[in-house]
Amino acid sequence: MLGHRYTRSFLETAVASVNAGLNLELSYGLRRNVFMHIPQALAMGNITLQMLRDRVRPLFYTRMRLGEFDPPAMNPYSSLDLSVVQSPEHRNLSLEAAVKSFVLLKNVRGTLPLRAQDLSGQHLAVVGPFADNPRVLFGDYAPVPDPQYIYTPRMGLEMLGANVSFTAGCSEPRCWQYSRAELVKVVGAADIVVVCLGTGVDVETEARDRRDLSLPGHQLDLLQDAVQ
């Protein structure tokens, strides 16, 4: 609210928030956050002790329902480890969810899906800043996965047994520096080309908006050169 000039200080923001019914603050990285001013607001009479109790009650009720105050032995999830979380059954379910979440806009001449038996003797080119960079594959607010469970497009396609060549064309999504010669060399010798483009949190995320939906930097040039 301070950033939008609804209030003029963290103290005013704390008073307005608590009075409006807010009981949670997302203040990662702020030592002196908004709700740290609640004691001052209480001392000044801007909020009441009963109001604070009313705001805190549902928080602790939820935490109690989640079992946060129970002994670890009572928590059915405390015994789970990677042998369960990353079991073949769970990994297959994750794969099924990923496959079913894709949006296929066009499939000219039945190009997809790529099947291992159809790629024998084929030369496959995987290009673009998202082709083999695990760091840029996850969006905002995503968890930090264990590297051993990350598969880039290049890694996944190499598992099909095809002869795979790769070039990023540009090292990161902003794509300010683009190596056209390297791209043309890799694409020119390929039977099938997979172009991996996008934005990622380096380009757009919370509090980092864009004026348009165009591909950043030279990514459009990369795509056009690959098609040509």
UniProtKB/TrEMBL annotation:
Residues 103-226 form the Glycoside hydrolase family 3 C-terminal domain. Transmembrane segments: none annotated. The gene is Xyl2. Keywords: Glycosidase, Hydrolase. It holds the Pfam family Glyco_hydro_3_C. PANTHER family: FIBRONECTIN TYPE III-LIKE DOMAIN-CONTAINING PROTEIN, SUGAR HYDROLASE-RELATED. One of its GO terms (molecular function) is alpha-L-arabinofuranosidase activity. One of its GO terms (biological process) is xylan catabolic process. It comes from the Eukaryota. This is XYL2 arabinofuranosidase. The keyword Hydrolase applies.
